[in-house]
Design goal:
Layout: H1 3-7, H2 15-19, H3 21-24, E1 29-31, E2 41-44, H4 57-62, E3 67-70, E4 80-82, H5 86-98, E5 104-109, H6 114-127, E6 132-136, E7 139-142, E8 145-147, H7 156-168, E9 173-177, H8 180-184, E10 195-198, H9 212-226, E11 232-236, H10 242-251, E12 255-260, E13 266-273, E14 278-284, E15 287-293, H11 299-313, H12 318-325, E16 336-340, E17 346-350, H13 355-365, E18 373-377, H14 387-398, E19 401-404, H15 414-422, E20 429-430, H16 434-444, E21 450-454, E22 461-464, E23 467-470, H17 473-486
Parallel strand pairs: 1-2, 2-3, 3-4, 5-9, 5-10, 6-9, 10-11, 11-12, 12-13, 17-21, 18-19, 18-21, 19-20
Antiparallel strand pairs: 6-7, 7-8, 13-14, 14-15, 16-17, 22-23
Helix pairs in contact: 5-7, 6-11, 6-12, 11-12, 13-14, 14-15, 16-17
Bound molecules: ligand UAG, adenosine-5'-triphosphate, 2,6-diaminopimelic acid and magnesium ion.
């Protein structure tokens, strides 16, 4: 496709250069990484967190790039087209180059619950008879795929390639997670959205966003920039940041649909929490439905409501959506019951790796725990350091036994990360080796206790330095439970 057609009318600041010979250049592919460039491709020079991509224009040209997109002029053997936001150019050009997307796409943002909402929305659509997919932290799930993922919101070129593949595989509906990094870096800018959702805002990624307001503003790009005017915006009604989300949706001309106890579109009239399910009375489309949601964790009711709101906003009748809630399966590693001891103590794996999530998950299991709540967790390296003492405090306040261990130390010294948590967790035990920490915790379990292994959820690796070693909380919990049952000494 010609560069001019990839740009369309979206980049008036480059209209002059695109009207000339540079606009006629035929583009065979796109990349923001000079190392991935091949003959005939466009190179987008992005200012990143570690490097400035414009340093690599010559490398890209040497590998066969025919044009570069950048935010400032550069001397090069290939034309350099200057635009205000090269990341946005890359995303929009990728959407045009790959062409197809599932007809109905929704995106959900918020600090916690995105993966669960994307999964539940996919499940409700599938129940309603649609070929549906989800894209996010746990990877890609569709009728034909179950691919492990790495980023919550993929890089725009990969994302658009994936959407075109899904469309060609017959997927008509896709729900995706919009992370604050993804939104801030314009990774979703070429996605054609039918509806958008917001769950909640808590503390996370304060290493990347300077203030909580700017973190919220990044999330709200989904509403004020990406959602087309008039699109439904499904907003969880009971969060501290609900009003802000509503204000942004109003100012952006979206159709506001609140869900929750204070919800107008879906109103939670009553909910009873049981150990493995919740019974909710939901007012939807003029009727009251009593729904058994077969998931542990009261926060899952909020996620189920946002998902039902998104499904209904894209054509699923209320009665079908409510019936589908009774069949939901939790996303992998989200308060997932992995096993129990012979005395009936339950062991869960959960993905809480930020303060609000840890607080929610520990509070959720408390009412059903007649014994002690035992938690094993750590904090990731090269990520928001401020959350470490906060999570230490939460664990100490809400659990009876706290075991601090490693969770993807990455380039940091693991002992330093643990000590920053331990500083706010008096009485906690520190066991560096995560497998040993889990085994120790399982060994402590008595009748009535609940174990939460938090932070890694579905993850299949432990990243130490630059190496990711195979590691799964599920596998380690199962092994420890089995050895305990067989009397193998720890
Ligand atoms: C901090 C961050 O978000 N980094 C993302 C960002 O990279 P960057 O722009 O900072 O890259 P950089 O290393 O500074 O390099 C700048 C540019 O020079 C290019 N380059 C570099 C070297 C070279 O030889 N040639 C070359 O062209 C790079 O390809 C890049 O385009 O843009 C890249 C392309 O989209 C992402 O892959 C990369 O994600 C990294 C891998 C990452 O770990 N991201 C995490 C923090 C993330 O995005 N997480 C979110 C949130 C999860 C959650 O909600 O909890 C997610 O969506 O997963
Ligand atoms: N609605 C919610 N409110 C508070 N905590 C939640 C909520 N939903 C999930 N959690 C907690 O957050 C963890 C992660 O849930 P989920 O993966 O659905 O969220 P996410 O927004 O996709 O997270 P991430 O940004 O890490 O991918 C869960 O394991 C649970 O501990
Ligand atoms: N998408 C999140 C995942 C964190 C998971 C946790 N296990 C950790 O490594 O901190 C991030 O990159 O911040
Ligand atoms: Mg997620």
């Amino acid at each position: 496709m010609k560069l001019r057609d990839l740009a369309g009318d979206d980049f008036p600041e480059a209209a002059d250069i695109l009207a000339g010979p540079a606009g006629d250049v035929d583009i065979l592919g796109l990349s923001s990484d000079s190392r991935q460039i091949a003959e005939g491709m466009l190179f987008a020079a992005l200012a990143g967190s570690k490097a400035d991509g414009s340093r690599f224009v010559d490398d890209a040209a040497a590998k066969g790039a025919v044009v570069a997109i950048a935010s400032h002029p550069a001397d090069s053997s290939i034309p350099v087209v200057v635009v205000d936001n090269p990341r946005r150019f890359l995303a929009i050009a990728a959407a045009r180059l790959y062409g197809a997307q599932p007809e109905t796409m929704v995106a959900v943002t918020g600090t916690a619950g995105k993966t669960s909402v994307a999964s539940f929305t996919r499940q409700i659509w599938a129940y309603a008879g649609h070929a549906a997919a989800q894209i996010g932290t746990t990877g890609v799930v569709s009728p034909d795929r179950n691919d492990y993922g790495s980023l919550t919101t993929p890089d725009p070129v990969e994302l658009q390639k994936l959407l075109a593949e899904l469309a060609s595989e017959g997927v008509t509906h896709a729900a995706m997670e919009a992370s604050s990094h993804g939104l801030d870096q314009s990774r979703l800018d070429g996605v054609k959205l039918s509806a958008v959702g917001f769950t909640n805002l808590g503390r996370d990624h304060m290493d990347y966003h300077p203030t909580v307001e700017s973190y919220m503003a990044a999330k709200m790009r989904l509403f004020d920039t990406l959602a087309p005017a008039g699109a439904p915006a499904v907003i969880f009604a009971d969060d501290r940041w609900t009003e802000t989300a509503i204000e942004v949706a109003l100012a952006s001309g979206l159709s506001i649909r609140t869900v929750g106890r204070k919800g107008g579109y879906l109103c939670l009239k009553r909910v009873e929490h049981f150990r493995h399910k919740q019974t909710a009375e939901i007012h939807a489309d003029g009727k009251i439905y009593e729904v058994d949601i077969p998931l542990a964790g009261d926060f899952q009711v909020a996620n189920a409501l946002v998902a039902a709101g998104l499904a209904m906003s894209t054509g699923v009748p209320a009665a079908v959506a409510m019936a589908a809630l009774e069949k939901l399966v939790g996303a992998s590693g989200r308060l997932e019951l992995v096993g129990q001891t012979k005395d009936g103590a339950l062991a869960y794996v959960d993905y809480a790796h930020k303060p609000d999530a840890l607080e929610n998950v520990l509070s959720s299991v408390r009412p059903f725990t007649t014994g002690r709540v035992v938690v094993v967790f750590g904090c990731g390296g090269d990520r928001d350091k401020g959350k470490r003492p906060i999570m230490g405090e939460i664990a100490t306040r809400l659990a009876d036994v706290v075991i601090v261990t490693d969770d993807n130390p990455r380039s940091e010294e693991p002992a330093t990360i643990r000590s920053e948590i331990m500083a706010a967790a008096p009485g906690a035990e520190e066991i560096a080796d995560r497998a040993k920490a889990i085994r120790h915790a399982v060994g402590l379990l008595k009748t009535g206790d609940t174990l939460i292994v938090a932070g890694k959820g579905h993850e299949e690796g432990q990243t130490v330095g630059a190496t990711t070693l195979p590691f799964s909380d599920h596998v380690e919990v199962r092994k420890a439970l089995q050895d305990l049952a067989e009397g193998v000494a720890s």
